[in-house]
Amino acid sequence: MSAPVLNIAIAGASGRMGRMLIEAVVNAPDCRLSGALDRTDSPALGQDASAWLGQASGVAITADLRQGLAGADVLIDFTRPEGTLAHLAICRELGTKVVIGTTGFTPEQKAEVAAHAREIGVMMAPNMSVGVNVVLKLLDLAARSLSTGYDIEIVEAHHRHKVDAPSGTALAMGEVVAQALGRDLKSCAVYGREGVTGERDPSTIGFATVRGGDIVGDHTVLFAGIGERIEISHKSSSRVTYAQGSLRAARFLAANGPGLYGMDDVLGLK
Ligand SMILES: NC(=O)C1=CN([C@@H]2O[C@H](COP(=O)(O)OP(=O)(O)OC[C@H]3O[C@@H](n4cnc5c(N)ncnc54)[C@H](OP(=O)(O)O)[C@@H]3O)[C@@H](O)[C@H]2O)C=CC1
Ligand SMILES: O=C(O)C1=N[C@H](C(=O)O)C[C@H](O)C1
Fold first, then answer.
1. In the CATH scheme, what is the code of domain 6-128+239-267?
2. Which ranges in the chain are annotated with CATH 3.40.50.720?
3. Ligand 1 center to 22 CA (angstroms)
4. For residue 136, how far is its CA from the centre of ligand 2 (angstroms)?
5. N or C: which end of the chain has fewer CB within 10 A?
């Protein structure tokens, strides 16, 4: 007997990630595109969600959340925090599971996500690539091994259209390092420097942000000591890796009950 097909709706359907996800879903033999959502003022409303691929899906992009979510087992959402939270509330009512790739949430918004996850399965990760999630594990080891005498700086670079900074991935890297060192990221993070800053405080974790062109996503964590420095880097050359990671997460949610999961659960990296 063949495995049941997973019905997936995509939010932010005409965005950079939305399009990648639609392509990945229509090409996955075990998935079906059941809906595509965009904002009420989007010029894409009413268009076939995969028309731009030269292959019709029969799914029209809609701003009507209930219509777009009808029949969906899982919603994959790469939009903005306000959009994700609005989508989550309806998904909770309908019992639809949610993969969240959106970044830029405040602590209060994250708490709202966690509250919804008490009722439905939610997988939330600032980076769906296998590589970044392995790097997060390497950073834990590096930070514990280089806990004294090394200054830690996190540098990230993204395309000119990115609206949040530092990236969700850079912040996740900072959290891993801070936790490994027993520091509180909120109180030790330094976001950019300017003017007469004084000497570097060794207990800080610095962040630097670069925005330009079409950079997909680069992250480097630098451990700078005396006489040596260690750099742990990840560079994305395509958004395909985020889309494939999201599909893995959707399959994981389909097989699991309510709860807030991370990519380490999906990839078995816990
Ligand atoms: N977790 C991961 O692996 C990754 C995460 N991301 C994150 O995903 C998010 C989207 O990135 P990207 O695709 O590049 O962004 P885009 O701006 O290209 O796409 C965002 C989409 O969401 C829509 N949107 C914006 N605001 C709302 C809202 N309030 N309600 C509903 N829909 C909304 C946009 O519509 P409109 O165009 O009309 O504004 C657009 O269709 C970002 O937070 C980014 O950081 C990105 C890549 C990987
Ligand atoms: O906006 C992007 O493009 C990306 N956002 C995510 C983040 O903020 O970490 C993941 C990836 O780096 C691409």
1. 3.40.50.720
2. 6-128+239-267
3. 14
4. 15
5. N
Q: Cite the residue boundaries of each domain of the chain with CATH code 3.30.360.10.
A: 130-236
What 3-state DSSP class applies to 15? Answer: coil
Q: Is 128 in the pocket of ligand 1 (CB under 6 A)?
A: yes
Q: What is the CATH number of domain 130-236?
A: 3.30.360.10
**Radius of gyration over alpha carbons of the chain, in Å?**
20
| 205-211 and 6-11 strand pairing | unpaired
Alpha-helix runs per DSSP H in 95-224: 107-116, 130-145, 168-181, 185-188
**How far is the centre of ligand 1, averaged over its atoms, from the C-alpha of 145 (Å)?**
37
Three-state DSSP class for residue 22: helix
Q: Which atom of ligand 1 is nearest to the CA of 242?
A: 3
- 0.95 exceeded by pTM: yes
Q: 79: which 2 tokens? A: 């939009």
* Dihedral (Cα; 31, 73, 241, 112), 10-degree rounding: 170
pLDDT digits (tens, 9 = 90+) for 45-102: 999 999 999 999 999 999 999 999 999 999 999 999 999 999 999 999 999 999 999 9
Task: Indicate which residue's Cα is closest to atom 28 of ligand 1.
Answer: 83
Please report which ligand is nearest the Cα atom of 162: 2
- Neighbour-count burial for 98-127, b at 16+ CB within 10 Å, e otherwise: bbbbbbbbeeeeeebbeebbeebbbbbbbb
| Mode of pairing for the β-strands spanning 217-224 and 151-158 | antiparallel
ipTM higher than threshold 0.95: yes
CB 167 less than 6 A from any atom of ligand 2: yes
